[in-house]
Amino acid sequence: MPELPTGSLPVRVDAPTEQRYAPSADLDLLGTRQILQVINEADRTVAEAVGAVLDPLAVVVEDAVAALQRGNRVHYVGAGTSGRLGVLDAAELPPTFNAPRSWFCAHIAGGPGALLAAVEDAEDDTAGGADEIARCARTGDVVVGIAASGRTPYVLGALRAAAELGCRTALIAANPHAAAAAWVDVFIGVDTGPEVITGSTRMKAATAQKLLLNAFSSAVMVRLGRVFSNFMIDMVPTNAKLRGRMLNILVEATGHSEDECHRTLDAAGGDLRAALVALLADREVAAARGALAGHGNRVRDAVAALTD
User: Fold this and answer.
1) Residue 218 carries which DSSP code?
2) Is the pTM for the entire model greater than 0.85?
3) Which of 78, 183, 298, 308 has the most C-beta neighbours closer than 10 Å?
4) Tens of pLDDT along 146-176?
């Protein structure tokens, strides 16, 4: 039996994720295909559980939009799998939406080394979470804690420090009855229930976190005008596939030929948003840029200004 890290005492967590999942009670007796079936059937319940917490999630989206518009930031704070999912979501926003890297800041217990390997006792470091936020956040930021149990000390320490700084606070947990619900500004308690492998929150709880973070950050980008229709219009064309996607978006969104879209994109210096406005409004790229500058960089408003 592995020894407990020095100074650690056992903590029995009272959360749905620590309860036993009856359909998997004989998991170790099943064949491979049957094991996968049990896991898949459990996974199907996660999207429905996420759907039940869209109202509080919408509140956090609006908080984040307002914060970013006034020059503040959004912070993710988590430990273990929760922390890694926060880092993943934040890392994907600059290439997908050309979001400034300063907009979303992810903090993981144990620091960058915890991305690849467990860092012993890091999640129990209440002071570490508080210090991290005290260093990096400021009044008006939005701090989103991610903790399957809803009680991770590193995360709660960060959230308390954030509240003291005057930040808006939110907690995403797979425990609808987490005590912290009483003192964060917004609580998102998604009821994913017991895990197929008892206590393994890298399963349903983590899937719910991934869905929530994807929906949250994507909705924030849509509300900030970085999506037109259902197209990414601010992505960074860092490879051939993405450059091809930009061309496909112009063809799909405008109905113009591929050659014409290619010429306009070249004239815009690879600026997809400017090329899109120019093609939709049938105007030169310079006029498109001027309309975007005068209308909050929003495609629909710029096109309307050029065509009314």
Assistant:
1) H
2) yes
3) 78
4) 999 999 999 999 999 999 999 999 999 999 9
